[in-house]
Design brief:
The chain is α/β, with parallel strands linked by helices. Helix content is 54%, strand content 15%. The chain contains 24 helices and 24 strands. Strands 1-11-12-13-9-14-15 form a seven-stranded mixed sheet, with helices on both faces. Strands 19-18-17-16-20 form a five-stranded antiparallel sheet, with no helix packed on it. α9 packs antiparallel against α10 and α23 runs parallel beside α24.
Length: 822
């Protein structure tokens, strides 16, 4: 169920419908776009999404899709149902080309026996569609490539056209002869040629010479300077051409009527094929629109959920794209535990856009359209979408703005359930705030008890408190840059948002006394709470940035680990290869050594132990031993490398298999344990136990201490504390270095409220102490002196401040406080 009736106009879906319709190739697809409707059936939605997603893949594929001739000839086919009617040449030509397109599309989806089905959803759609190749062949035998009836469509037509051609040739020769005579007599200009008027060949002549040529004057030009004469010698021939043309038309009608009689029984099947063409045209247009807005087919589950990442309003995306601007995506999650999201924040901060984005994308999804969000998103199916956006005043129905809202709320309360998603903009507004907020809170409680899902925007504080204290409802805020005074258009879920009313009023230039009066009227509690909300949002942005940096570092670490493991695997592979080659080389060397020794022995024997020969043989053997030794050294190096790798691997394995360390028990103190006096930092070692006392060595000093005054500390904790006191991480050092570079020695708090100025000065002095500044200046102006006194009262309480005083009179005097730091 969709509520209200103008849902599409309120969410902008009517514009989406127009954009898709413009991408259709024919009225066939445009009708389907007009019929496109919301569906709560999971199977139907999935089928529509699959079809569109497959067509997007077709658009990216290498094979061109046959989309040349999408003609709508359904009216012509319905017109020929009575006997005696026929299709004219244009209708027959459009029928032929569109039937050929249907045939090509069906063949595109139906794979051969060897091919795998690439597009299952579209193939199923084309499964039982009839094609008419014989009909196409018959039309080809009747019409030429320009859509005109061929001469050989029938023997009679061929004879008629042959006779027309011969007669026209005779007329042309006669006219040329008459024209040459007239030109030689000066009756007609040299460049004049015969002209066709009303299907008859004539000679154009000046009115003054019209009696020089015997014949019939049929016509004259608009200016009256030329008359068209049909010479009497060709009158009969032209009459014959007219007769033959009549015969030609009757023969063509006969041919077309005979063909139409063949087509007539097939009309129901042909119309069914055109319904398939309409579906394809519609799906193609949806795919083109998805390409335009970067839409995808997300994960769709048959449950109620909204878990979207980087969702984009398609119409806003297209609008900003024309202006060469980037749209800020939306991250939003609605689950069974947190079904209703209450969004607060400043005006013009993007609350309504967020609301419309949810409504439009969910409606598009259930209409079978691909939607622009990140592929990690998960979507669900809702049976109903209710929306209350904008002003519905009606003079005719005597409805005020608030009355129209209450009318919508009545429908919501009566019909919402666990399968409904409600979208309400500016909940409770339009009437007196106190009672309006109370009614809104009661309605919100009813929605929650009905377990419906929803996104609701509001400025009411009581709704923010209710959401914080109620299970099933969660607060959200549209972020705002307090320093630049501009919205960030980002949704943050978990905390309510500030309306930044005071800040916006001050930026616009509302008088400060008016703002002060307003702040006094609402009270300090409200102002403080609003300020705390702003601080929470600021801190959340800071920690979100930190978390993002940690994620990036973790990803980098994972990449390095993966690369290391890959390199290690490669080393192991190389090691095995080296070992194999080393073994082969050792075997070869051994064989050579044996052969060399045997050869040396033989040489000594043959020389009969002659001294000189024996020396030479031994020298050759020594040289060979030296070469073997050098090879052995290389092998030793490789072996040592392999051994180191193996040792490293064994140590890693032993580390993994090592028994778990004994659990550190803080309550039991034994000899040898590290202990320290409770509340102290210095640690000592227990030398011996004496009943309820222990002898502890603190460095070179031994002391007897009661056990109850001692606390046991682990070695890791001592090491950590020593590192903590003596070590500064590189990240901290880099951060402090950057802070020192960007630190300014002066701050201007003129024009700020007291509490805001005090908070700014607090941050400034903290930063100054951190970066080690010796002197800073605070510009607060003179005014009534209240701001100066507040700041100096605070400076008096800061331990790091050594002294503060007025600036030199020539440099600002009492309007500037100079602070000297330790």
């Amino acid at each position: 169920m969709i509520y209200p009736q103008n849902f599409e106009q309120k969410t902008g879906f009517d514009k989406v419908r127009r954009l898709i319709s413009d991408k259709c190739l024919s009225p066939l697809g445009q009708e389907r776009v007009a019929e496109m409707e919301f569906s709560a059936d999971y199977t139907t939605v999935i089928e529509r999404l699959e079809q569109t997603d497959e067509f997007v893949r077709i658009l990216h594929g290498e094979v061109e899709f046959p989309a040349s001739f999408f003609f709508d000839v359904r009216y012509s086919l319905k017109r020929i149902r009575p006997e005696g009617t026929w299709l004219d040449e244009k209708e027959l030509f459009d029928l032929k080309r569109s039937l050929q397109t249907i045939n090509d599309i069906v063949r595109f989806f139906r794979p051969t026996d060897e091919e795998e089905i690439a597009y299952p959803a579209l193939t199923a759609l084309a499964g039982d569609i009839l094609v008419f190749p014989q009909l196409i062949g018959k039309i080809d035998s009747i019409l030429d490539k320009f859509g005109k009836v061929k001469d050989n469509a029938s023997p009679t037509l061929a004879q008629i056209r042959k006779e027309i051609t011969a007669t026209m040739s005779g007329i042309s020769r006669s006219l040329q002869s008459i024209l040459r005579n007239a030109q030689s007599e000066g009756v007609v200009d040299k460049d004049v040629t015969p002209t066709m008027r009303d299907g008859r060949l004539m000679i154009p002549v000046a009115p003054a010479f019209k009696r020089k040529i015997k014949g019939i004057v049929h016509d004259e030009s608009a200016s009256g300077k030329t008359v068209f004469i049909e010479p009497e010698v060709v009158v009969e021939a032209n009459n014959r051409v007219r007769e033959l043309e009549g015969d030609e038309r009757r023969e063509i009608m006969k041919i077309l009527t005979e063909f139409t009689n063949i087509v007539r029984p097939m009309v129901p099947d042909i119309l069914q094929s055109y319904e398939f063409m309409a579906d394809i045209d519609f799906i193609r247009a949806k795919a083109l629109f998805a390409e335009q807005v970067k839409g995808i087919k997300p994960v769709v589950e048959n449950i109620q959920q909204v878990d979207w990442a980087r969702a984009v309003h398609p119409l806003l995306y297209l609008s900003l794209q024309k202006q060469d601007k980037q749209v800020i995506p939306l991250d939003i999650t609605l689950t069974e535990e947190k079904r209703i999201l209450i969004i607060s924040g400043p005006n013009a901060g993007g609350k309504s856009v967020c609301l419309k984005t949810v409504g439009l994308l969910q409606y598009m999804l259930q209409c079978g359209l691909l939607i622009p969000l990140h592929e990690s998103s998960r979507t669900g199916i809702f049976a109903s979408i209710f929306i209350d956006i904008g002003d519905e005043q009606s003079i005719e129905n005597d409805l005020s703005t608030y009355s129209s809202h209450l009318t919508n709320m009545k429908h919501f309360v009566r019909n919402c359930n666990e399968k409904t998603i409600i979208l309400i903009d500016e909940f409770g507004s339009g009437t007196e705030p106190q009672i309006g907020g109370a009614i809104a809170e009661a309605l919100l409680d009813r929605f929650n008890r009905n377990r419906c899902f929803g996104v609701i925007t509001t400025h009411y504080q009581n709704l923010k408190h209710f959401a914080e204290d109620t299970e099933g409802i969660v607060n959200g805020a549209m972020l705002y840059d307090r320093h630049l005074m501009q919205p960030l258009f980002k949704l943050s879920i978990g905390n309510p948002g500030s309306s930044f009313a005071v800040e916006i009023a001050r930026k616009i230039g509302l008088p400060e006394d008016v703002i002060a009066d307003a702040s006094a009227k609402v009270g300090s509690d409200y102002i403080d709470m609003d300020k705390y909300l702003q601080d929470i949002v600021r801190d959340k942005r800071y920690w979100e940035s930190k978390r993002q940096n940690i994620r990036q570092r973790e990803k980098k670490l994972e990449d390095i680990t993966e690369r290391y493991e890959k390199d290690l695997a490669e080393v192991n592979k190389q090691r095995k290869e080296i070992m194999r080659e080393a073994k082969a080389e050792a075997q070869r060397i051994l064989s050579e050594a044996n052969a060399k020794i045997e050869n040396t022995i033989r040489e000594i024997k043959e020389a009969q132990a002659e001294k000189e020969q024996t020396k030479l043989a031994r020298k050759a053997l020594d040289e060979f031993k030296a070469s073997v030794s050098s090879t052995g050294e290389e092998d030793d190096k490789i072996a040592r490398k392999m051994a180191k790798l193996q040792e490293r691997k064994e140590r890693k394995k032993q580390k993994q298999n090592a028994p778990a360390k004994p659990v550190f028990n803080r309550d039991v103190i034994e000899v040898g344990d590290n202990v320290r006096l409770k509340g102290q930092v210095s640690a000592g070692t227990v030398m011996e136990l004496q009943g309820k006392q222990a002898v502890v060595a603190f460095g070179m000093i031994k002391s007897t201490v009661k056990l109850e005054q001692l606390e046991k500390v682990s070695k890791g904790q001592i090491k950590k504390e020593i590192q903590k006191s003596t070590f500064v991480s590189s990240d901290t050092a880099d951060h402090m270095h950057e802070k020192k570079l960007n630190f300014k020695q002066e701050i201007d708090v003129r024009g700020m409220r007291g509490d805001e100025a005090l908070q700014t000065v607090t941050y400034f002095i903290d930063d100054a102490i951190q970066v080690g500044a010796s002197k800073v200046r605070i510009l607060h102006g003179t005014g009534t002196g209240i701001l100066r006194q507040l700041i100096r009262d605070y400076l008096h309480s800061v331990p790091g401040v050594r002294h503060y005083h007025d600036e030199h009179v020539q440099l600002g005097g009492a309007g500037i406080t100079v602070v000297e730091l330790d």
